[in-house]
Amino acid sequence: MDGILSVLLDIFRQPSVIVALISFIGLAVQRKRFSDILQGSIRTLVGFLVLAAGSGVITEALNPFGKMFQYAFHVQGVVPNNEAIIGTVLLKYGSESAIIFFFGMIVNIILSITSRFKFIYLTGHVAFYMASMLAVIFNVAGFSMWEVLLWGSIAQGLFTTISPALVQPFMKKASGKDDVALGHPAGTGVALGALIAKITASKKRPSKSTEDIKFPAALGFLRDTTVLITLSMAVIYIVVALFAGSSYVETHLSNGQNFIVFVMLKAATFAAGVYIILAGVQIVLDEIVPAFKGISEKLVKNARPALDAPMTFGFAPNAVLIGFLASFFGGLLGMTLMAILGTTIIIPGIVAHFMAGGAAGVFGNGQGGIRGCLTASFINGLFITFLPLFLLPVLGDLGSANSTYSDADYGVFGVILGHVNIVGGRTVLISVILIALILFYSVSIFMNKRDSNNFEKVEEIK
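The structure corresponding to this sequence follows.
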């Protein structure tokens, strides 16, 4: 039994496998030919692996940048990085994390079936990170094993259903369609940024889209997204490398390679990663959306697949770069304020600001063009910088580690649950989860009635 559970958990921790299985089942229930089922499933699997490879290339290119930044500006503090903190957590809470993750998926499906919020969260690795954080919080709260698993699974299911729902109202303007959702723990930060971009957008003087930026004829080559990203990142890398100094870069990072050549290649590698991601996105969207219709028709009617942040990058590639820079600037400002206030310093996590900031830029651009992109991403940058500061106290011994969870959803869900426990204890914590469940269904019922009344009014007018 343990062996079977282990295999299942290994499968469901791989987003590429999950999405390929969804594609296989969706095409099968539509009674497609076996060759079409095989082709669609393999293309979906390969597309997700291409996307993951692109993310890995970007991470590899950004890691030395983070090290140069810390050395150049003599900054020491906590670096939000999911991959760094997860290794520590799993040593102590690995079993609970895996079980919460598994049953949280089931709760996600049940909530989608029984409410209007029909989002199936397919980004397995980030959902697993959330499950690990919930395991920490409920163990720190003093729950028994079965209580950790029960309430952790319910909280996990609520997260994987609510997070995409918060962003979805902004999806159509960002992408031009409404058949996919954002399945990334940046959800609350992206939604907040997009909402503020919408509120602050000028109707009299609307800002043009980031994708409509016009370059002079002599700079026409900058219309190529790959060229623009490479040159922009090269400037940023070179500036930070100059502050860090050639000796540091060549001794500790480049293995003796000239530091300017090294950082130029890292900038180009970053652009290559973005290019790979966009290629993978196109393959997956071409296959998973039609296949997912089969699942939604049979299991969860009108369900949308909630997919990782890079899935949105193809909607507005220029907004991704602008969003990253604006989000990172927000992180730098937040770090400066922390230094002035004398608090623990949260150092901007480069990967988090690229993924979350890029997605916020895309959705902000949909609401308010270039100004909306800058606004949404900057707000996201501040949000994911200050949230970890309030998350650290609720993580027990892990709160003193030099890394923590990086994205907005981890901060929002973790801060609420953790501080509720600190203030009111286990009984109040359980009450909050039950209240959240009641509110979830209440909002669903209210919105269904509102839509029904609006439909009846339209019919009366006709």
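The mean pLDDT is 83.
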